[in-house]
Specification:
2 copies of one chain form a homodimer. By secondary structure, the first copy, chain A, is mainly α. Helices cover 63% and strands 3% of the residues of chain A. The first copy, chain A, has 2 domains: 3-93; 121-493, Orthogonal Bundle (Neurolysin, domain 3). Chain A has helices at residues 3-31, 38-56, 59-68, 75-93, 96-119, 126-144, 149-154, 163-185, 200-213, 249-268, 284-298, 302-315, 324-331, 345-364, 372-384, 409-429, 433-438, 443-452, 462-470, 477-490; strands spanning 223-225, 231-234, 237-242. The first copy, chain A, is globular.
């Protein structure tokens, strides 16, 4: 090995450890930080970001890279160098002035968005959104260096994947999802909703129980409450959070399973990759595939909900979930609605796909921010069959665009597509999985996913990883087949 | 203001924020970190320390300091520059090789010490301690730059104070403490000890109650459990920890009050000083004065324990603390013993003072590590009137020397001396304080201390600060008078 190679990896290791600290500070802020500490925390985070930015754009990285390539000994070395080179190039392409301006505008924009949503007043937010879109276009153009601007933004969340490839997948999904949605809404059989009150203590005990069922490693994690559930960290310390709504225990249970999916991915990565460019989930789409397969294909399966209904009966007095079949229907009840985050498995991807198309148009300049509310409403009516009742339930509902997250939305649906592919392959490999799930044992699935997906970290590009894991190129067919089968049964279609 | 002045303060602000993050990581490790994350955390801490060391020895600090002095506008500016210059000089004097070697040896030494203590085998530890002493002598000599080596080490914990000054105070204290100790142990009246079991939940409720009584700001703090209680942070986020021993509720209550004292100091500092060199407690001695006056002169007073006995009766079924006078005696019961951390107000300083003398001799080379056990035992017999029964109760009991903390011990007793001075002045200013304490209201004391001591942060050197707060140069008289009065009454001497 050359000095350049060793120095580069040592430098990178320190940078990765510092980035990991930034994650700890976020966890702390959302779970345990005293409420009066916001200003101090933002100074701490800014200080760390200053150091991280200096390191990520340190010109020595370029010098080390020039000599290091000759000393890569295997595919892991080569991939590490390629990822370092990509991050360095991207970090160096965005002028400091622009990065600072984006940070400034988006931190203000989030507050303006929240207020506009509360007041149901899109005009209060749209001028600010225009500013954000302009800045993100500028950033995308700098990053793209002549390539596609949206793809350059997408690369932060779903690297090595083009919007064209994603659009091809989504366009193939839409007709079947719309048709399924219409069939369900016209069905005569409708599972009943759950009613009652479910105390926090019982919900949290249940949440710990389901996390354990999925094999969550408590020696390397913990569960806390947060307003918006998230997972955080990796390697030896990947924590999850959940929330409790006393009238809706499924919120707590499925938030927990979802976040345990994310955390398990990070905990499943080969520990030899820790603090290297390989030691993290390769993309948001693959990350979401892990959280979604845990939550939906496994956690909302007939087998697992059968076990869960027993645990809920243990946890809550007078639990009236009905028999296991009825309970399965209740868990999977389809609720048409305006809000993405409350959507069921059938509606969710339709939400995401319309945001993807709209944000591509915004970044490309085919759609102006001024015309966005009208475009939103028209598209919603077309895909969902109902008109948006008010902006807070429409164009104002998501925080993402206000904070500059363009290119993030498609990873949600891509994750579902990947989850569908993985579920099909896993079921073929593990014929007894349902019998295990019915006994509350989801860890054989975790083990399969660890072996096929998780342990590789960022070694393979996302679509190659899914293809290597499943033996087939990613396609929406398995997800659509799964949804049509599942909801066809449930709604007697 | 000059560019150099502004650049220096901005650079310092980022460094202070990064140092604050290091404190967060320590808090996290001791309270909420999953137990499998030790290796990762040590990489994170090492990465942050690397960055902090680079910043603290950045040669630009010297350049900025050269031009900044002309632009200081007031005493605060001047003090800030002096503190930055001191830290820069000290950081630059220790060769990187030596700093790394000390970090390496002490991190191993702590484990070797713990094992030797568990096995009661001093010979397993002494060779390692010799190494630590050699390295600390070398570090002290580098820092002293021709001055006194021990003073140079002391400066990390009690700046602007010499060992000679401390020795003069301690030497004046010893005879009166020894005499008091002998009188108490010969007394016929002996307060009874508390017996019973006190469940964790009640102890923690009580701990929250006493923290509130002292005016602890819960919007800028929180209380958690830790094996060794500590406080952490400042400005907008100063957290405390406590521990629960089910047979000894005083452990939890007085650990909490002690740590609330430390946290209140940091929270009481003028917020304009945040993230500047003025924005922290000026020395460990002054810090300990705050924790000790909260714990002892206030928390163990007849007035406050009267209120506390009522709260304990509320918190625990069948609480048998006796009447308020008997309870006061129980809280302040004198227990001769070998262990510093379990010592009462009378014995505590005797413990500290012997360590101070021994460590000065070790650093000066007047005492070899080989001869330390014998010196320890001889001194203990002289000051405490009993022979040490085994090394784990003697020379092996404290972690400090193994991790290289030479110069730290005297700050414990100095803090008690300062607490005595402050208590005398505060009682003169607040004649109704006992009436307030008897109603569980200790916050008038917090307010007095905030005004006289806490808000100044590091603006004044430690002894000047105490003199400005009390109107008299620090002296052990008030502490000794307080102890003789209090224990004279309790033991009917």
């Amino acid at each position: 090995m050359s000095d350049g190679f060793d120095q580069l990896l040592a430098f990178q290791r320190t940078t990765e450890a510092l980035a990991s600290i930034a994650g700890r500070l976020d966890w702390d802020r959302e779970t345990v930080m005293p409420k009066g500490a916001a200003e101090q925390r933002s100074e701490e985070v800014a200080a760390l970001e200053t150091v991280l930015h200096e390191r990520r754009t340190d010109p020595r990285i370029g010098e080390w890279l020039d000599v290091a390539a000759d000393y890569a000994e295997d595919a892991e070395d080569e991939r590490s160098l390629a990822l370092i080179a990509r991050d360095y190039t991207r970090a160096s392409r965005v002028p400091a002035r622009l990065a600072t301006e984006i940070a400034r505008v988006t931190s203000l924009a989030q507050g303006i968005w929240a207020e506009a949503r509360a007041k149901d007043a899109p005009d209060d937010f749209l001028p600010t959104l225009s500013e954000v879109v302009m800045l993100k276009r500028e950033q995308g153009a700098a990053l793209a260096d002549g390539g596609d601007v949206y793809d350059a933004l997408l690369d932060d969340y779903e690297p090595e994947t083009s919007a064209t490839e994603i659009a091809a997948i989504f366009d193939a999904m839409r007709p079947r999802l719309v048709a399924l949605r219409e069939a369900i809404l016209g069905a005569e059989t409708v599972p009943r909703a759950l009613s009652g009150t479910f105390p926090q203590e019982g919900q949290l005990r249940l949440a710990r129980g389901v996390a354990t069922a999925f094999g969550y490693d408590w020696t390397r994690g913990r569960l806390d409450l947060a307003v918006h559930p998230f997972s955080s960290g990796g390697w030896q310390d990947a924590r999850v959070t959940t929330r409790v709504v006393e009238t809706d225990p499924f919120n707590c249970v499925y938030s927990t399973i979802h976040e345990v999916g994310h955390a398990s991915y990070e905990l499943g990565i080969d520990p030899d990759y820790a603090l290297t460019p390989l030691g993290r989930g390769v993309s948001m789409g693959v990350h979401e595939s892990q959280s979604r397969i845990y939550e939906n294909q496994l956690g909302r399966s007939r087998a697992f909900t059968g076990w869960l209904s027993g645990r809920m009966a243990d946890a809550f007095d007078d639990f009236a979930g009905g028999d296991a079949d009825a309970f399965y229907g209740t868990v999977n009840r389809v609720n048409p609605g305006y809000i993405r985050t409350e959507a069921d498995e059938v509606h969710y991807n339709l939400h995401v796909m319309m945001r993807f198309d709209l944000e591509r148009d915004l970044i490309a300049g085919r759609l102006s921010v001024e015309d966005l509310p009208e475009a939103w409403n028209a598209r919603f009516l077309r895909d969902f069959g109902v008109a948006v009742d008010r902006p807070a339930n429409g164009v104002l509902q998501d925080v993402h665009w206000s904070v500059g997250l363009f290119g993030y939305f498609p990873t949600y649906a891509l994750g579902n597509v990947y989850a569908g592919c993985l579920d099909r392959a896993m079921r073929a490999d593990l014929p007894d999985l349902d019998a295990e799930l019915a006994r509350g044992k989801a860890h054989p699935a975790t083990e399969w996913l660890r072996e096929r997906v998780q342990r590789h970290g960022a070694l393979l590009p996302p679509r190659e990883l899914i293809e290597a894991a499943t033996g087939a190129a990613p396609s929406p067919e398995p997800l659509l087949d799964y949804l049509e089968d599942k909801f066809g049964d449930l709604y007697a279609l």
